[in-house]
Amino acid sequence: MTTEQTASLEQRIEDLKSSLTGDMFQDMDIRDQIHNLEMQIKGVKPMDSHIDCIGCGS
């Protein structure tokens, strides 16, 4: 992943964080998006999975 791609993902994460309301149920989808973007930045996915974040329990 290039520096520009990482910066773009980090900016998207910050934008999503600024839209959090503090209501757990309303924020659930936003937090899931943030989690998925953070996994992309870190290059992480569940073991034995070709699909990111399916079955990871978060």
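The record above closes out task 2.4. Task 2.5 opens with a second protein, given below.
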Amino acid sequence: MNLKLKFALTASLMGAPGCQCQRAESTASAFPAHDSKVFYATNQVELDDIRDFFKQVFGASDYITQWSEIDKFRAGSVDDARIPYVDTWYPEAANGTNRAGSLNKYDQAFYAGESRAAKWEVDNHSRQTPAWYGHCNGTSVSGSRYQSPKNSVKRPKGCVVGSASCVEFSPADVRALLSEMNMNAKAQFISGRRCSLTDAQLKSRPMLRSDPTVMDACDDVNPGSFHVSLVNFLGRMKQPIIFDQSQNNEVWNYPIYKYKYTVSGPLDEASAVAALQLGEPLENWVFNPKARSWYKVNMTVSYRNSTNDVPPNAGATLVDSTDLNYEYVLELDDNGDIIGGEWVGPHRYNHPDFIWMPFEPADPTGDSSRGNPLLSTTEVTSIWAESVGLDPANPFRDKPKNVFDVRFYPPNDLTWGIVSGYYKMLLDGRNTGSLFLGKKSHLRVEVADILKDANVEVFLNGKALDTVSPTTGSVDLLFDSPPGLNILTMKWASAHVNESEVDWEFKYYAM
């Protein structure tokens, strides 16, 4: 029997790779030439991983790959309130997140003036070369998940500015603390891998892959994964995703918050090959053998760029953006599902390295590639919450004042029927994920206090069973289970909890 429906995660990150990560050296000779003119890459495993991750983040929400559904979302964006704010990427060569003394203020407020957070920054985030080392991933996470700091905040609370023990954090200070803290953000790769080659090495690579069925690290994000991810995460769910804009060994993370595209097609195989603009004839070129039709896409993504200098209007939610254009050909199978794709012409050497989604910060590890361990996540979050007028104890669930739809990092595994801290389910009095037939199946749902005023709609194999309110702490349902494998789906409506934390599917076996 298969217990809790478990979704496979791709490489999980405790702090996404960002501007400050060490550069790995490589050479073009690592890519052996291929002796045939066969060139295609399968993408199904990655697409399956993206689907599973999407389900983990959004609960029971439907994930789409079929072109007829995908193409209904030719444009998508976050809500206006979630357009990422403007900030610097806090380059290490310019004192990092202490460039304006923000960490000195933190030390004054929380370490009685002893240089601790500031000293750690000097010791760990002050490399002068390469010049691109900085905090772009922390800034990207902050702009994606946090409302822009608005007001100055005093510590201790209520102190008189100017007195010896009173520290005032300006909005600019709060942004610096957020960027440093979010170097520790939990994160998940959606697609792609980091390429460590220089531009010259990339362009000297052979035309053909060593294994034509596999995209390597410097082929980066498969266009099929890229398109499906933009539509599902951003177009449908209005969640920003972060991309490494640079395909080469440098890392420049920025949040994408809007896209739009145009399409040519459907194309036959010969037209699709011509659309790739290879620059040389490849008589035996083949796409994915399962591909039956092709579309050429011209995609424009809009992202929030960062700046070396903090502008006067830093932190304001502005409508201007930096735009990039990408062209690629998508491959569709005989069911009309996107199964992969190839970059077109010059975009083979000019496309995202990887895309990822950030979540809440993890506890700092002290590693120099991550955030400052001398900053308290609790204290920084409280300062930020006070700056924007949210509940400092729990700002992300301060509804309706917090208009952000903030997702939390999904658990890697769940015991059958148990969503820790929220509810547990029993089938015929057990949480084994199985039951015996011969009578009505009995489902009991026991909830924590935070869900007592919620409603839950329960589905069996996609059909609604009932909508119930566990006001007394539990509810009971009786129903007929078909023999064999079944799926119970829980869809919650709560004023206190995001559905991503509580909407789950559970497999059980009736025998």
